[in-house]
Design goal:
Elements: H1 2-11, H2 17-30, H3 36-46, H4 52-58, H5 60-63, H6 68-72, H7 78-81, H8 83-104, H9 112-136, H10 139-155, H11 176-202
Helix pairs in contact: 1-4, 2-8, 4-9, 8-9, 9-10, 9-11
Amino acid sequence: MRWVYYNIQEIGIMRYFPLMVLCIMSLLCRNSPAEAIVILKSFELFLPPFVIFWIIPLFFNYVNAGTREVYLSYPCSRKKQGILRVIIFMLLFDVFLTAAFVVAVSSWKEYSLYLLILCVQSFFYASLGFLMIITTKNIVISIGIILAYVGLQVLDTSHIFYIISLSFSGVYNGKLENIILRMIILFTISTFLLIRAQRRFERLEVV
């Protein structure tokens, strides 16, 4: 627990940002007259990406020239420093995401599959965030690239870029097999990104 607490402190003030967004979004949606499926579409567009505000800052000191030597010299395996921290904080984010989901959607049991979709999407963004910060070594650029990708999905009302979209709204009311297949594909891509990021993280040099 001390190790987790220490890593939470490492995130800095950004650790509050996703929690604030989840709380505000869930309360707004709870009082909204919109149908549950409309609320869930908003959830999948706006909430899963906020996991990057926990993941990306976690690794800033590992890529920053001024602190890299100290952090990479810790007597701790690179897997624990890298992939394990990503998974732990992603799961922690999913706990709060689940709470927001239950608060926002009164008939949440009917849409429990959508909760699983949201968790898979947060896995994708967590893995992508890890890869971005290790590759660019810059917090602003990493967050900017991912937010630009999210913005593209939000603005793409004509579904021109559907092939690179994470949205499940187009298949949710269809066959269950199509939903599961899309989830498996997204999970596989997320796993690939996570492993790729971990390999790059392990190749980081102390100096």
